[in-house]
Specification:
- The protein is an alpha/beta fold and about 700 residues long.
- It folds into three domains: about 270 residues, 2-enoyl-CoA Hydratase, Chain A, domain 1 (Alpha-Beta Complex); about 180 residues, Rossmann fold (3-Layer(aba) Sandwich), CATH 3.40.50.720; about 100 residues, N-(1-d-carboxylethyl)-l-norvaline Dehydrogenase, domain 2 (Orthogonal Bundle), CATH 1.10.1040.50.
- About 50% of the residues lie in helices and about 10% in strands.
- It is built from 30 helices and 17 strands.
- The strands form three sheets. It has an eight-stranded mixed β-sheet with strand order 12-11-10-13-14-15-16-17, sandwiched between helices.
- Helix 14 links the parallel strand 10 and strand 11.
- Helix 5 crosses helix 6 and helix 5 crosses helix 10.
- The longest helix has 21 residues.
- The N and C termini lie close together (about 10 Å).
- It binds 3-hydroxybutanoyl-coenzyme A and 1,4-dihydronicotinamide adenine dinucleotide.
- The site of 3-hydroxybutanoyl-coenzyme A (3HC) has 26 residues, from strand 5, helix 4 and helix 12.
- One of its GO terms (biological process) is fatty acid metabolic process.
Length: about 700
């Protein structure tokens, strides 16, 4: 919880000779909450009124200059003064205002700096307009001032990508006037102000600058519209950003500002803003787990990976990229050669694309060791096992690890489904055994499920969270069950998709509906990409324990029986002629589907995209609620982060539980109850969902609401 502050404590002023130093000190990141805005406005009034002041220096205390508007205020009624007014007061001052940027100058923070008359950067400064990541646009003059300073193309790119610039790039782009070495913003800033005063530098307002080549810029913007609409796939704010820049070109400054404000408010009111901001905070909340708060992580300076297949190699790359030395163990000489090649292939591709030098590749591979001898990992701090998904093979590996690894080494498994308690029990040190469930490709995918078995020591859990940070992963704490959080819920909504398929929707209709919702791919496309044989093997494994009364759809089995495993075999639910990555519809698949329906006596009915999504999402949310209810996920937000970071769930919807909150839990429950009339065994309302509806609460009420 960050306590509400008053203006005089978060913005202080001090005269250094004739320079008024205005310090923004609102930990942790100097966000522009109401008190900061009031403080800045008061400081400008003081500077104007005090004849002893000849210039003003804006400086941030701590690590950041200003990281932007206070995101927690969005969605609540605005409190005066609004930020555009503060920026106007800064720009209108009749004495030179200088901003010194030594850390994050993002969003509203950069907009404050753009309103100053001069900008100095230190090397650690990062300058950006990342509002688009929150479903917004720069709403305090960023869309009007940035194009004036850096040109339309560079400014639009800055706003559409949301990617910040480092100090040097910002200097080249014209966003800052000067870059100096150093880490002390006050000293550097004061020296720069003195330099400006000595040179009689005038007040210089960004608003008065003309935009270079306006006609060419307008034509370029027009071209960007189609491109942006395609790239941003249904996102609201990117096109509004373009509209604002058009206004900057076509309207006088004040009218441009009014246009920006109107479009900013439209973004604020959009559900996408609510979803994206939920995702932002949820990704920061997931690391707050009891064990990581209670215990100190063990040091991890070296890693071993057991198995050099798809996952082992990806995990090795993730660790190498984080600067760690990695020893990979494989079964025999041939397998370790393949494991090494799997790792090298990733860096080779980077070199081929010109994104890595040969020397850098050699340096990274210099930290990689391949071996077939467990004795070589006796001293490593942490081991990640990624051998075949077979409990006996895994237990044998863990017995070996138990024999050779030093005391206190963390022993992790990357299993997707297997019982980690049982794996831990095969060692004499279950307190050191944990699940680290990476997602494929492991060097790219952000999600890392940290699976916490019954006997694991808290400092091992803390170590896993620390490792995730080092590997730049988004960690989610999960309990032990079949499939943990993500794959367990996936299995259920995949089943809902199979029922829809058998009941009358084609795989292509289902995939299109799911894409229409915002996922990059539908479930049958995902099956084809991952390989149909993987799910088939799981289904066979589970056949013995399946409830004979439960509905089972055999269509995928019929497809696998033909050897159609998806992209890698050239056909699955789709056809992939000549190795095409985008599949084409396959009449033979539709014939198989028809035959299976006929065999089951199903008369196919039609489903609209909305009907498809209601079932798909109801299944996802209901199992999500079960996962929270059983304590497999700590909070609903952990389910949300799992799906956004690991399953392609559209970030702008916040996650399945946030989606349910925004849809209304009574509505979701009513759907489930209606579906249950057809199939009560599958559609069983989660007790947590029922309870929340009864109490008139939502999932977010379980997300430590006081943090927001
Ligand atoms: N408002 C409120 N809280 C914020 C915040 C913001 N703008 N930015 C960060 N925080 C909080 C985080 O929630 C976190 O809180 P916690 O400790 O309670 O979990 C704390 O500050 C530290 O944040 P991080 O864990 O992210 O710290 P890092 O050091 O890893 O990163 C950062 C710092 C790069 C500044 C990163 O926090 C960040 O990217 N922040 C958001 C920047 C942004 O999007 N700014 C634009 C806001 S919208 C805007 O300005 C609209 C304007 O145009 C009108
Ligand atoms: P894979 O078949 O590509 O690789 C397994 C590797 O382990 C092979 O190279 C094999 O030679 C090696 N191996 C087998 N027994 C060994 C032993 N006793 N000692 C040393 N090496 C041994 O399999 P993949 O896909 O990499 O999966 C590995 C693990 O990761 C499995 O537990 C799987 O469930 C899990 N996983 C897989 C994901 C995926 O998308 N492929 C995603 C997340 C987890």
């Amino acid at each position: 919880m960050h306590a509400a502050a008053d203006a005089s404590s978060v913005v202080t002023t001090a005269l250094h000779g004739d320079v008024l130093v205005v310090t923004i000190d609102n930990p942790p990141v100097n966000a522009l909450g109401a008190a900061v805005r009031q403080g800045l406005l008061a400081a400008m009034q003081q500077a104007q009124a005090d004849a002893a002041v000849t210039a003003v220096l804006l400086v941030g205390a701590g690590k950041a200059f200003i990281a932007g508007a206070d995101i927690r205020e969005f969605g609540k009624p605005p409190v005066a003064p609004i930020l555009p007014e503060v920026c106007r007061a800064i720009e209108n001052l009749n004495k030179p205002v200088v901003a010194v940027l030594h850390g994050a100058a993002l969003g509203g923070g950069l907009e404050v700096a753009l309103s100053a008359h001069y900008r100095l950067a230190l090397p650690a400064a990062t300058l950006g307009l990342p509002e688009v990541n929150l479903g917004l646009l720069p709403g305090s003059g960023g869309t009007q001032r940035a194009p004036r300073l850096m040109g339309v193309q560079a400014a639009t790119t800055l706003m559409l990508t949301g990617q910040p610039l480092k100090a040097q790039a910002a200097l080249q782009a014209g966003l800052v006037d000067k870059l100096v070495e150093g880490t002390d913003p006050l000293a550097a800033g004061l020296a720069y102000v003195r330099e400006l005063l000595a040179a009689n530098a005038p007040v210089r307002r960004t608003r008065d600058l003309a935009i270079a080549e306006p006609q060419a810029a307008l034509a370029w913007l027009e071209e960007q519209k189609a491109e942006t609409a395609k790239k941003s796939r249904g996102l609201f704010s990117p096109l509004k950003i373009i509209e604002c820049v058009q206004a900057a070109l076509q309207l006088p400054f004040d009218e441009g500002m009014a246009r920006e404000r109107a479009l900013f408010m439209e973004c604020i009111d959009s559900p996408q803003r609510a979803g994206l901001i939920h995702a932002f905070f949820a990704e920061r909340e997931v690391v707050k787990v009891p064990e990581a708060q209670a215990a100190q992580p063990r040091p991890v300076a070296s890693i071993a990976v057991i198995g050099g297949g798809t996952m082992g190699a990806g995990i090795a790359v993730a660790a190498l990229d984080a600067g760690l030395p990695v020893t990979m163990i494989e079964r025999d000489a041939e397998s370790i050669a393949r494991g090494r090649a799997n790792v090298e292939k990733v860096y080779h591709a980077l070199v081929a694309k010109g994104r890595m030098t040969d020397a850098a590749k050699a340096a990274v591979m210099g930290r990689y060791t391949g071996s077939t001898d467990y004795a070589d990992i006796a001293q490593v701090d942490l081991v990640i096992e990624a051998v075949f998904e077979d409990i006996e093979v895994k237990k044998a590996v863990f017995r070996e690890l138990d024999r050779v690894c030093k005391p206190g080494a963390v022993l992790a498994t990357n299993t997707s489904y297997l019982d980690i308690d049982a794996i831990a029990a095969s060692t004499s040190r279950p307190q050191d055994v944990i699940g680290l469930h990476f997602f494929s490709p492991a060097n790219i995918m952000k999600l890392l499920e940290i699976v916490v078995p019954a006997q694991v020591a808290p400092d091992v859990v803390a170590t896993a969270f620390e490792l995730a940070k080092k590997l730049k992963k988004v960690p989610v704490r999960a309990g032990v069950c079949d499939g943990f959080i993500g794959n367990r819920i996936l299995a259920v909504y995949k089943q809902a998709a199979d029922y829809l398929l058998e009941d009358g929707a084609s795989p292509y209709e289902i995939d299109a509906a799911v894409r229409g919702f915002g996922f990059a791919m539908g479930p049958f496309q995902v099956t084809d990409l991952a390989g149909g044989d993987i799910g088939w093997a799981t289904r066979k494994r589970r056949a013995a324990t399946r409830d004979p009364k439960a509905r089972y759809v055999e269509i995928a089995d019929r497809i696998c029986e033909r050897g159609w495993f998806g992209q890698k075999t050239g056909r699955g639910f789709y056809l992939y002629p000549e190795g095409a990555r985008m599949g084409q519809t396959d009449p033979e698949v539709l014939a198989i589907v028809d035959a299976e329906r006929a065999k089951k006596g199903v008369t196919p009915r039609s489903f609209t995209a909305d009907e498809i999504m209601r079932r798909y999402m109801a299944a996802m949310v209901n199992e999500g609620a079960n996962v929270v209810h059983e304590g497999i996920a700590l909070r609903p937000l952990d389910v949300d982060v799992t799906f956004v970071a690991g399953y392609g769930f559209p970030r702008h919807r916040g996650g399945p539980m946030k989606w349910a909150d925004m849809t209304g839990l009574p509505k979701v429950l009513a759907d489930i109850e209606a579906f249950a009339k057809e199939d009560p065994l599958f559609w069983k309302p989660s007790p947590l969902l029922v309870q929340l509806v009864r109490e008139g609460r939502n999932f977010d009420s379980l997300n430590q609401a006081e943090k927001r």
